[in-house]
Protein 1
Amino acid sequence: MGTYRVTTLVAAPPERVFAMWTDPDRFKEWIGGVTRVTDRVGSMDEAGSRYTVWFGRMKSPTEILAVERPWHIRTRFGNAILKGESDVRFAAEGDGTRIRQEFVTRGFVAAIVGRLFAMGSYKGSFKGELETFRKLVEKETTGRS
């Protein structure tokens, strides 16, 4: 088991940040390797809702464990390579939103893969995806690139 934390400050209000974070149709724009999201059951605003994230032919069933719009969402995800929980907090900070994300992996293989994703800020890393998300939200909020 491994625990990994990433954070960033987004120049946008919490409601806008949360709305984009919880829009499965937008996942492939900022989560590395996502090709589609299927099997949606329930709303992204409700604990117990489920969906499947696809990375090519590999699927990752995901369940929303807790949600409080626009401040918090916790999910359980998993496939043979990476499984665990993601706990994300959104806090108003100045004119923006501080995102704090914690990944807790389950299993030996997931701990190794999680460690690889936690290292550095390359595009597919946890930090890289968070920065891609930040830039996407800010571009749409302020029009800057």
Protein 2
Amino acid sequence: MTDTPRLPEGYEISTDTARIDAERVHQWLSTDAYWALGRSREKQDRAIEGSLNFGVHDTLSGEQVAYARVITDRATFAWLCDVYVDPSVRGKGIGTALVAAVREELRPCGLKRIMLATHDAHGVYAKLGFRPLERPDHWMALVQE
């Protein structure tokens, strides 16, 4: 397993859902994240309510600068999704540290796998031990449009 990257000084990670800036998260995802463009605020709020949420916050201002959520039973499986870092703080290692924090938070659960899907961030996730599916032909999806 790879080393656990740390957040830059001046930032902290919280799993306290009460600290999530739901309006900001919705704005980020519904307008700038290819996988969630046009997602309604109501749908985003439901997603937050039903998930394990991670926020990265500026320690001085309290402003949220990144987000990730996990759908999990905390026993056998987890789906990491909606990972987003505000453009103003990209390139500082915040996204890598955020995903590492997710990995570490879930480690005690003894999950067999943590899944995710990405179009363009394979390198970020590979640094943290994620790899392509060995047998993608074993996986299926029910897509309901």
